[in-house]
Design brief:
- A hairpin with a 4-residue loop joins β11 and β12.
- This protein is about 25% helix and about 25% strand.
- By secondary structure, the chain is an alpha+beta fold.
């Protein structure tokens, strides 16, 4: 293993924020991953697994243990009856994988184009956007069980997928390190057109290609500052900072009475989905609570294109980003009684200081 000391972490994150890792290792094989886990255990050090850095807020103090950067590469395609299985190593760039699948005319992840990060992070958060979630296309997830010290393969049913959740970021958080994800895609399949913005561009009587849909998704993401573009300050973010809350009919009625208007609402996406539960946009709640696009707090700001993204305007600290996030969360809770749940993973923070207030 090639261990590095006091490695700056900011360059590995899309926010461009964060102090150094006390120890850092870039692992390009499963053997290196297993060895790194054992080394951290033997030295009684905390371990953090780093992928594409797109869903992280690293503290200004950095991380006091070992940061294990997953860099496994390789994609193998296997025809399986009417489907094609892509076995993608965890360190593969996600958007490049989507481009390959779309180029192969395989449907199932075309609406997830333009999302930053790596393949290994997709099952952890059950990444989803524009009418698709990876849970619908994942066949297997291979991971290291750090407790049992063995590699294991999960079926999609084993992963406990829900809205932005899986066993990997909930009940078994920290236990498994994903090394490979197998995607079951549909050669020649039609694109998914559930999202309203896509339906406006591609009406029911049209027959867009997967490539056309993926390109439109990237255009929409760019318009909202959710596509990484060099030199664009609105893209220096961790993506959506808050999850869209799932609320009861009573909560929905309360929000409507407080705001004086009916909030937008969508199916909850839960399985099974009780008819009494709906999803409302966190961005709408944030704006109703007084935080408009472009709102600033020091060098941290709400994106000028999308209220859900908190951006680094240049030189922002993690403390500033977190202060802005907590201020927004508190305002929404004070007005509507709904606590927004953060999407990014917080690394190196004291639990009490990072708690929303």
């Amino acid at each position: 293993m090639h261990l590095e000391e006091n490695k700056p972490l900011a360059p590995f994150t899309t926010l461009g924020i964060g102090g150094p890792a006390r120890w850092y290792l870039r692992a390009s094989s499963e053997e290196e991953i297993a060895a790194a886990v054992e080394w951290a255990r033997s030295h009684d050090l905390p371990l953090f697994v780093l992928g594409g850095g797109s869903n992280l807020l690293v503290s200004d103090a950095g991380f006091p243990g070992l940061v294990l950067h997953i860099a496994l590469r390789g994609i193998t395609a296997i025809d399986d009856g009417a489907h094609r299985i892509y076995q993608a190593a965890a360190g593969e760039e996600w958007d490049a994988f989507v481009q390959r699948a779309v180029g192969d005319n395989c449907a199932g992840i075309e609406c997830l184009a333009g999302i930053p990060g790596t393949v290994g992070g997709t099952p952890v958060q059950n990444v989803g956007a524009y009418g698709q979630e990876v849970a619908a296309s994942i066949a297997h997830v291979r991971a290291l069980d750090v407790l049992a010290k063995t590699f294991i393969e999960f079926t999609a049913a084993d992963c406990g997928f829900a809205y932005r959740r899986s066993r990997f970021n909930s009940t078994d958080r920290g236990r498994y390190i994903v090394t490979r994800v197998d995607y079951r895609l549909n050669p020649g399949g039609a694109p998914t057109l559930r999202y309203a913005d896509l339906q406006r561009v591609f009406p029911a009587d049209s027959a867009p290609t997967l490539a056309q849909v993926a390109a439109e998704v990237r255009r929409i993401r760019h318009s909202k500052g959710m596509l990484l573009v060099e030199g664009d300050p609105d893209c220096r973010s961790a993506g959506s900072f808050f999850k869209n809350p799932i609320v009861t009919a009573a909560q929905l009625e309360h929000v409507a009475s407080i705001s004086g208007k009916q909030p937008p609402q969508f199916p909850s996406g839960t399985d099974p989905a009780p008819a009494t539960l709906v999803k409302i946009p966190a961005a709408w709640l944030i704006e109703q609570a007084g935080y408009a696009k472009g709102y600033t707090l020091g060098a941290a700001a709400v994106s000028s294109r999308h209220t859900l993204a908190l951006i680094n305007r240049g030189g922002a600290t993690a403390a500033e980003i977190l202060a802005l996030a907590n201020s927004i969360s508190s305002a929404v809770q004070d007005r509507f009684g709904i606590l927004l749940e953060r999407e990014p993973v917080l690394v190196g923070f004291d639990a009490e200081r990072s708690r929303p207030r």
